Amino acid sequence: MDDVLRIKDLPDRIGETVTLRAWVEKTRSSGKIAFVVLRDGTGYLQCVVPKGEVDATVWEGVKTLAKETSVQVTGGVRADARSPGGVELGMRELEVIGESVDFPITPKEHGTTFLFEHRHLWLRSRRQGAIMKVRHEVIQAIRDFFYERDFCLVDTPLLTAAIGEEAGTLFETDYFDLGKAYLAQTGQLYLEAAAAALGKVYCFGPTFRAEKSKTRRHLTEFWMVEPEVAWYDSDANMGLQEDFVSYIVQRCLELRKPELELLERDTAPLEVIQPPFPRISYTDAVAKLQKHGQSIEWGRDLGAEDETTIATWYDKPVFVYNYPKEAKAFYMKLNPDDPRTVLCNDCLAPEGYGEIIGGSQREDDHDTLLARIREEGLPEDAYGWYLDLRKYGTFVHSGFGLGVERTVAWICGIPHVREAIAFPRQMHRIHP
Ligand code: NSS
Questions:
Q1: Partner of 400 at 20 to 30 A CA spacing, among 60, 113, 337, 354?
Q2: pLDDT reported for residue 98
Q3: How far is the CA of 271 from the centre of ligand 1 (A)?
Q4: Nearest residue CA, atom 28 of ligand 1?
Q5: pTM exceeding 0.90
Q6: What are phi and psi of 44, to 5 degrees?
Q7: Hey, how many other C-beta atoms are within 10 angstroms of the C-beta on 357?
């Protein structure tokens, strides 16, 4: 089969007769002229069908076209300033490839449950298509950012023997004669080994958390990108994060304007996303929250509401750094200036989107790390290899993880992460 012409290529074909394949988005007709809007994933095309100028079979065929019928059409491409893409097609021939009887998603309002049950069909809508393209751009920007800066991609395993983040949210499965295996919550621990081998590394893939929460920020399967850098301290780590987040946002503004427009995203709050980002210590943030009358006590992790409040103090993403060690994972480096805290940061997105990044400098002292593993009651033997990294040439190193769906939701201005991935996995959703 010859490569098929795509709608986005039609502006180069003005004056030519072309054949293409696509799906019917909608049709309308007056007695003498009909319009068919086609969609092929690369764009939308209005086809014009004047009754008096086409075969009767074409005219009759057009009248029976239902939403999402797949078709092959042939016609002349002409310039039309009012059409999307600047062209329209004078349809001459029409062939129905696959009928579409009673497509379940109609222009009327559907409930969210219904739409997610029909996610495999809902993806064809303009809005969902636009979100997928922004996601695609975010992911390409992530890969380009690290490639341009000489980071080596290292793929980390999804089946793991040790807890990466927290015991409470593990998916476990039986692993032959070797006991339990867990779906990866993070690639970080493996990436630390890779950083000692390669210096600047990142991993990028799906991660899993058995989150029993039904918030608009949580999925049970989400994509996380995690860089890890040898000889970076917490401060340099935040510097990398602000460059990284700004790069992703600016790329989307540059290349995904039409999609953001379709999503009715006000891009003004995104235009200002440039380094440096403001930084506030956890301790200062808690004091300020208390002054605002919020009930947070020093020592507790920040809740979604606290994060939203802090974010309103700034128009850029903000770093909250050096949390109490009890609120964070075992691998973070104790703060030598205040051992109640660890050298870490969260990055909170503006406009109420909350935490998009968690990062830290890693504990590089063997005995301190061992003590932390024991304190947390983690199985020591599972972390023997991880402790080895502190035995054979230990090194200052830091890294972070950025959640793709939260970042996409923020850039698109959509309220919930579940629309930021094609087939979301949540506590109450595994189908389709
Ligand atoms: O748990 S994190 O805060 N940090 C880590 O996993 C570290 N091991 C990363 C590292 O330093 N290499 O998760 C990082 C980000 C977090 O800020 C969110 O943006 C996202 O991952 N995240 C999630 N997104 C969607 N759903 C869920 N459940 C979720 N959990 C974290």
A1: 337
A2: 98
A3: 25
A4: 218
A5: yes
A6: -120, 145
A7: 26
